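Form 7-S
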Amino acid sequence: MSNMIEDTTSDKLLAALNSNMVAYWSAYGRTAGSTLHSTDRVVWIYTGVQIPLFNGVFFARLSPADVQPTFADLQSRIAERGAPALWWIGPQSKPDNIGSLLEQLGAQQAGEVPGMAIDLAEMDDRLEMLAGFTIEKAVGAERQALWARVAGAGTGFPDAASEALAQLESRLSDAQYAAQRRYIGYLNGTPVATSTLVLESGVAGIYAVATIPEARRKGIGRIMTVVPLLEAKQMGYRVGILQASSMGYPIYKKIGFKDVCMYWLYLQT
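Output:
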């Protein structure tokens, strides 16, 4: 734990936040049938899942001349399998004009996502556990597939995309699952929510917080976020990070997360 980020004022925080995100998504690129391209200048994956989140560039420190070849590599995968891709452009992305270069190549602006962080020592960790609500870790192929289907339903994926994610999850290795702890939340025995904890680059990353529509507005999203962070805190981690959806943003703010950067998304089709 020598690379542990001590607090949210660390000058290493933004790099750690992005490295943690790369670790989460790169695991999908290592599965059978997927592609992972990883160098010290660019990291992109292509899984073929028909949701842009599961294909694209998560780290780019390129020269202006290298943007087009990377775009072309992704375009060849899109032409072959049809799934669109996203470029995540953050505060450390290069070149400085990468967004305009991507637009010149045909990518479209697809929104903004705040990067957030929290000092775990200052986290509001009070939990009012909902009656009938329990959490378990997803272990084994059956639970991994269940996690994927619940996450897909909670995020609003079409059924076909949720099934594709279930297949993708089933191809993750045991080592990858050990490094990325996935949680399923049950309400009165029915699976209704998910989240993931990634311990990487000295920070505790939270991903895939999702609740099915029928179980929302009960505080479940907060529970699925705080419980993994408490585990990380007990293990000695001091900082939690995430990239917030518009639905989750108010929940994360109440927990104590603060904005630390912004990611600009570009869609490549």
